[in-house]
């Protein structure tokens, strides 16, 4: 079932996206590094219940927004002409036609590397553990490592090639398990443990210490 989104505007807070998700088990609020607010609405909850829930957390939301500091990526990115490493390869960062910023040039390089590496790795892990997917997309994602659609198609972040291989494998396996179990119940974590050698929680914690550009990336469990 496709997720439905309803955006409401609050005078003291701004826009809030209410996203209905049939896989969700509870109402939840998420605020990303850019101050974008999303309320996840499970199947059982009405829109009015979701709004009451959000308004009951209004002071917490305002506190989060007031304490949220946008990071300046420019201070942590390599300068044009500098070298940087991707999967053991050294690239000199050149701005080509269509690259308006250094960040855009980095994503271009990562997309190239990701398209060369990730499809084969997904195929290898799928075959090893008997998973089947209907499609694979590799793209720029600022705050998600990956996702799985209800039709069992997987989306992966091209930034995965900047992670150690065992962590990019964890993201891939996490999404592959979602092709069988869409929610995050006990059976999901049991199966993920089975394909990660019992290390799913350990890998999840380690993944949380890594960032996508200067934004903290979500572990792929949303």
Question: What's the short story on this structure?
Answer:
This protein is α+β, with helices and mostly antiparallel strands and 222 residues long. It has helices at 47-56, 58-67, 102-129, 165-178, 186-195, 200-207; strands spanning 4-10, 14-20, 28-31, 37-41, 83-86, 89-92, 135-139, 146-148, 153-157, 211-212, 215-216. It folds into two domains: 4-67, no CATH class; 102-216, 2-Layer Sandwich (Zincin-like), CATH 3.30.2010.
Can you tell me about this structure?
With 222 residues, the protein is an alpha+beta fold. The chain folds into two domains: 64 residues, no CATH class; 115 residues, Zincin-like, CATH 3.30.2010. The chain has six helices and eleven strands. The strands form four sheets. The protein has a four-stranded mixed beta sheet with strand order 1-2-4-3, with helices on one face. Strands 7-9-8 form a three-stranded mixed beta sheet, covered by helices on one side. Strands 5-6 form a two-stranded antiparallel sheet. A hairpin with a 5-residue loop joins strand 3 and strand 4. The longest helix has 28 residues. The chain is globular, with a radius of gyration of 19 Å. The chain starts with a strand and ends in a 6-residue tail after the last strand. The model has no long low-confidence stretch (mean pLDDT 86).
């Amino acid at each position: 079932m496709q997720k439905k989104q309803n955006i409401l505007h609050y005078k003291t807070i701004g826009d809030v996206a209410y996203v209905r998700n049939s896989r969700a088990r509870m109402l939840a609020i998420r605020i990303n590094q850019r101050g974008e607010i999303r309320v996840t609405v499970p199947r059982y909850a009405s829109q009015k219940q979701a709004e009451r829930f959000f308004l009951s957390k209004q002071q917490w939301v305002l506190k989060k927004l007031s304490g949220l500091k946008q990071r300046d990526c420019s201070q942590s990115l390599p300068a044009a002409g500098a070298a940087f490493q991707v999967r053991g390869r050294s690239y000199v960062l050149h701005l080509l036609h269509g690259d308006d910023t250094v960040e855009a040039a980095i994503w271009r390089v990562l997309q190239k590397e990701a398209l060369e590496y990730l499809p084969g790795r997904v195929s290898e892990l799928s075959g090893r553990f008997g998973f089947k997917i209907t499609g694979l997309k590799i793209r720029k994602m600022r705050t998600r490592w990956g996702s799985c659609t209800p039709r069992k198609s997987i989306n992966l972040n091209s930034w995965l090639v900047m992670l150690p291989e065992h962590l990019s494998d964890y993201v891939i396996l996490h999404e592959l398990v979602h092709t069988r179990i869409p929610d995050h119940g006990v059976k999901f974590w049991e199966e993920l443990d089975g394909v990660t050698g019992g290390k799913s929680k350990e890998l999840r914690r380690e993944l949380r210490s890594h960032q996508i550009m200067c934004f903290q990336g979500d572990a792929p469990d949303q």
